[in-house]
Amino acid sequence: MTGSWVRVLALAVVLAACGNAEEMAAQKHEKRDAFPPPGSNIGTCRDGRTWATSEAEQARMLQRLNAVRAEQRRQPLLRHPVLDKMALAHAADMACRNYIAHRNSAGDKLPDRLDRVNDGSFDGWTRLAEVLGTSVAPERQVERWLDSRSHRRAVLQPEHDRVGIGVVRITGSRYSTYWAVEFTESPHHTTR
Fold first, then answer.
1. In three state form, how does the secondary structure of 7-65 look?
2. What is the predicted pLDDT for the residue at 92?
3. Do 145 and 69 contact (CB within 8 A), yes or no?
4. For an engineered disulfide with 90, which of 14, 63, 122, 180 has Cβ 3.0 to 4.6 Å away?
5. Residues 145 and 135 sit within 8 Å (Cβ to Cβ)
6. 163: part of which helix (H) or strand (E)?
7. Are 157 and 128 a contacting pair, CB within 8 Å?
8. pTM, to two decimals
9. β-strand partners of 182
10. Among candidates 53, 34, 155, 36, which has minimal Cα distance to 99?
């Protein structure tokens, strides 16, 4: 009888540990990127600070990127809502947590971050790149990217045809502006 109680108790401890591990994983997942409320241009960091985004500034960024690409005879980029969500989530995460990096605060790389926000409407990619920045004006930020070899390559990559753009304005962080721009090549892409 004692042996069966020990086994039952050991099983209960294992099940409790699994439950705690699932709960901890769920809590870690909740503490990741600061996603904006649907349809809102204002979000709140976990520390209570608010941040704002602007569709007009994102449109200016797309316009500038496509102007630079046209000068180099590259096809225009088309925005995709899943990539936009990925970019804005990362810009908000960086702003709220005061860092600049291609991995988010949970340590996720670009493909993992894309998988997290993909609602099934993003049909895949064969190339994925990201540029980050802190310039106030989109035009100035694009200039800075073009001055960097690796960033210039991402901006002008001929195969890139889809883009996601996120910008966050915030006070109380190292920078007042955080940009994240995601580039992909669609799986059905053909270079002109």
1. HHHHHHHHHHHHHHHHHHHHHHHHCCCCCCCCCCCEEECCCCCEEECCHHHHHHHHHHH
2. 94
3. no
4. 180
5. no
6. strand 162-170
7. no
8. 0.80
9. 130, 164
10. 34
Q: Of 10-14, 79-83, 135-139, give the lowest mean pLDDT range.
A: 10-14
Token digits of residue 58: 């994102």
Evaluate whether 80 touches 162 at the Cβ level (below 8 Å).
Answer: yes
What mean pLDDT is predicted for residues 76-88? 96
Could you read off the pLDDT of 148-182 as tens digits, one per residue? 999 999 999 999 999 999 999 999 999 999 999 99
Q: How far is CA 136 from CA 16, 148, 169, 188, in A?
A: 50, 18, 9, 35
CA atoms within 13 A on the CB side of 29: 9
| Two tokens, residue 8 | 């039952």
Say which residue, 115 or 25, is predicted with more confidence: 115
Q: CA 82 → CA 97, 164, 165, distances in Å?
A: 22, 7, 10
Place 123 in a pLDDT band, splitting at 50, 70 and 90. Answer: confident
